[in-house]
Amino acid sequence: MLILLPPSEGKTAPTSGARVDVDALSHPALAATRRRVGEALVKVSGQRNAFDVLGVGPSLAAEVERNRDLWEAPAAPAAQVYSGVLYDAAGAAQWSGTALERARDRVRIVSALWGAVSPADRIPAYRLSMSTSLGRIGPLASFWRRHLAEELSHVADGRLVVDCRSSSYVAAWRPAGIPHVSVRVERELDGKRTVVSHMAKHTRGLLTGALVTADAVAESPDDLADVARTLTGVVDVALTEHELTIVIAG
Question: For residue 38, is it within any domain?
């Protein structure tokens, strides 16, 4: 089983520790590419048009400023740096050593800066979205698509891929020719079902936490559906060839 996650916009910046060692991250073949994106991010974050390029407002000025110190900033496991709704629901920051080692094998976070990392990889906090077009590199989803195909296809080979990513990160790599299931979340209220963004992230986080901390590995879509049925608040689970729909109470 390989779980694909998006990063979170919300990040907890490490306050101490060694800086990032790009060569030590998962998929070391991506090291040169990561450095290229990182250097471009550092450069654009010091320009007058940084907010426009990065698609943020003045309220995030401190995060843009932090990008300029990317290579010198303290790093920590990605499971602790990414701190949005999905990661909070997964309990990622509190994963034990055993769970983090499982996550190293079972999870890849598709990132606009790093390409793909495991939750155990040590990274600094940064601000960059996959929807960004970064200088001469261009649109990041298209850029990473050229570099991630071989790496992720190799690590996914022979495993069920559980895709919990949002659309902009799906665009960077789409599984092909391997078993894969995307996770859709709906809310049921008064007999009607609707898609809900915030609760979708929360539910995908619950599912991720259950899959990472379990001793057994979900090896088939049916195994995955069985795990989904155990989650708090779930009222129905439907499985098609490449999609798992989890319905939560409204």
Answer: yes
In a domain, 103, yes or no: yes
Q: What three-state secondary structure class fits 9?
A: coil
Dump pLDDT digits (tens) for 171-188.
999 998 899 999 999 999
Amino acid (1-letter code) at residue 163: D
Tell me the average pLDDT of the chain: 96
**How many of the other CB atoms lie within 10 Å of CB of 82?**
27
Q: What is the pLDDT, as a whole number, of residue 16?
A: 95
Q: Using an 8 Å Cβ cutoff, are 204 and 92 in contact?
A: no
Residue 196 is predicted with a pLDDT of: 82
Number of domains, the chain: 1
Residue 229 domain flag? no
CB-count exposure of residue 22 (10 Å: 0-12, 13-18, 19+): middle
